[in-house]
Structure to design on (582 residues):
């Protein structure tokens, strides 16, 4: 096949997918940014201003929401990564029951977050199933005695749902990485006298580090930017950033639209920046080890 | 690795001792392992338990651990036209089916190109296609919403389907590129030398070999579209009602049995995908494995 023909083939194979991404995703992003700057030619506004951003960044609502969203993102991604490492290390062994447990471990991956959030409400609300168990055990007398973990100040219900879903996601990735690495490196370390802890710290963790970094950043990006779970499990104030943005977008006062756009652009820019920095850092980390 | 390599030679003679230590410790290791396994099973299944119970519960007041009586009221309501659940399932299912087919048509060739060809800009293309998975979609959605209003696509099932492609296409490309990275294109050359045209080669050589991957990618795409909440809500402005929209409405209205029953309806595609992919889920490879590499 001639070179030209091969290039043409390649282009034809990639063009449809790239069109979807460039037109819908990038196009949407550009239009979102333009509107956050007040550029809305359809309603005759063509002045570009940073008003919405100035407004947002001095708004206490926004700052409290930003803090809450960061807290949820960091806590969920760090905890779920730790849980996933432990789970993957246990499940890669050849023990009785590991195959069945691995199967169950992955069951909730295709379960939508909305269902997980409703499960969390049914379990952890003050009259939920857990509260009924603590009543039976005599630890609580009434629903009000049970700690507020859903619709609470710290987003605990939100974090619980994210842990439930994302631990399986990260764990499955790490399990696949561990299996592809095999146990040869560890056997060498063992023959050289490395203890179990040393093998974990100096052999296994560095080998699976690329997988850990990539999956944890995906989890962070997701938990930072998604809507449903904080919408269902979050308090009215402060709200997670995506929820705040959506509510501004639908405010009867159309003047809030620009602010809504500004918030969602800030979310997208923050995530992109964090991902890029993280990738850069992880590259150097992985190379030096 | 570094500190292991520094181990002194005289310590090597103790490696037997170390192994015995490992053996004696492995009893505790096993206890720990089983503890973790029990915790995994409980943690995964626990949030689903009250959903299954509530869906068939009649009167169930605090502090009863189980319902006073069972009832099919929620199901009678969900299956009746009044709840609009069946309509929502039909609309959501159609949208998801069309989005799946479209993202497969677009994603299979792209996955093949990324896996089998080395070319300049490959990483950039990969990054662009994966960007929608990482960058939260709200800004994008609010941006295209205005354009969709302009083109008359906002508030229509067509507009919602197009918007769903942003979420489904990257996954299809990702799954298909990992499928094609284990694919040997030499079989196609043999068919071509034997006189088969490109279409016949694809249908008789390539397609049968990638079919299992296509099924998995298609099911993932379906489930992503079927589960989209904010995309559907924003683009349709609530005028195209799918199952998640209905479900969130009922969850906010606190009718627990109906919410739970709708959850189970919402879970049907998830249950199907678990059944179809179960051989991957217990086996040595996982559908998501490509993420870590």
């Amino acid at each position: 096949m001639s070179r030209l023909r091969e290039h043409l083939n390649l282009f034809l194979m990639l063009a449809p997918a790239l069109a979807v991404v460039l037109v819908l995703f990038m196009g949407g992003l550009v239009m979102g940014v333009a509107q956050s700057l007040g550029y809305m030619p359809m309603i005759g506004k063509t002045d570009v201003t940073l008003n919405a951003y100035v407004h947002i960044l001095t708004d206490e609502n926004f700052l409290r929401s930003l803090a809450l969203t960061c807290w949820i993102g960091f806590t969920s991604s760090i905890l779920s990564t730790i849980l996933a490492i432990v789970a993957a290390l246990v499940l890669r062994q050849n023990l009785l029951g590991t195959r069945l447990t691995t199967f169950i471990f992955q069951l909730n991956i295709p379960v939508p977050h909305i269902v997980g959030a409703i499960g969390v409400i049914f379990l952890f609300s003050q009259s939920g199933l857990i509260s009924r168990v603590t009543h039976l055990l005599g630890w609580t007398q009434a629903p009000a005695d049970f700690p507020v973990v859903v619709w609470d100040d710290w987003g605990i219900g939100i974090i619980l749902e994210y842990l439930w879903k994302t631990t399986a996601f990260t764990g499955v990735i790490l399990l696949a990485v561990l299996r592809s690495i095999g146990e040869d490196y560890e056997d060498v370390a063992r023959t050289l006298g490395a203890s179990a802890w040393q093998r974990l710290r100096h052999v296994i963790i560095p080998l699976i580090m690329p997988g850990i970094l990539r999956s944890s950043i995906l989890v962070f990006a997701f938990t930072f930017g998604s809507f449903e779970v904080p919408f269902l499990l979050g308090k009215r104030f402060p709200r997670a950033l995506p929820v705040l943005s959506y509510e501004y977008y639908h405010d009867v006062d159309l003047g809030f639209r620009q602010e809504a756009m500004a918030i969602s652009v800030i979310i997208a820019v923050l995530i992109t920046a964090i991902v890029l920095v993280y990738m850069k850092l992880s590259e150097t980390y992985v190379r030096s080890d | 690795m570094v500190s292991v390599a520094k181990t002194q030679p005289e310590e090597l003679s103790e490696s037997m001792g170390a192994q015995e230590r490992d053996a004696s410790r492995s009893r505790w290791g096993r206890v720990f392992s089983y503890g973790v396994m029990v915790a995994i099973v409980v943690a995964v299944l626990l949030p689903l338990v009250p959903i299954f119970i509530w869906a068939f519960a009649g009167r169930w007041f605090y502090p009863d651990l189980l319902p006073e009586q069972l009832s099919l009221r929620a199901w009678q309501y969900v299956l009746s036209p009044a709840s609009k659940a069946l309509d929502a399932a039909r609309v959501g299912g159609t949208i998801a089916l069309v989005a799946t087919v479209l993202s497969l048509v677009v994603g299979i060739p792209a996955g093949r190109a990324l896996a089998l060809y080395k070319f300049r800009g490959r990483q950039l293309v990969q990054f662009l296609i994966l960007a929608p998975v990482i960058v939260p979609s709200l800004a994008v959605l609010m941006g295209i919403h205005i354009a969709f209003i302009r083109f008359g696509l906002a508030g229509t099932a067509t507009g919602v389907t197009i918007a769903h492609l942003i979420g489904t296409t990257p996954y299809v490309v990702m799954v298909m590129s990992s499928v094609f990275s284990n694919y040997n294109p030499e079989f196609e050359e043999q068919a071509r030398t034997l006189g088969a045209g490109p279409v016949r080669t694809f249908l008789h050589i390539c397609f049968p070999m990638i079919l299992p991957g296509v099924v998995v990618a298609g099911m993932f795409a379906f489930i992503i579209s079927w589960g989209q909440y904010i995309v559907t809500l924003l683009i349709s402005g609530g005028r195209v009602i799918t199952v998640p929209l209905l479900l969130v409405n009922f969850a906010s209205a606190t009718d627990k049995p109906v919410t739970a029953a709708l959850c189970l309806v919402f879970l049907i595609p998830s249950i199907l995908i678990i059944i179809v992919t179960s051989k991957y889920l217990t086996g040595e490879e996982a559908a998501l494995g490509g993420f870590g590499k």
Q: What stands out?
A: Chain B touches chain A through 107 residues (CB under 8 Å). The two ends of chain B are 20 Å apart (CA to CA). Chain B is about 75% helix and 0% strand.
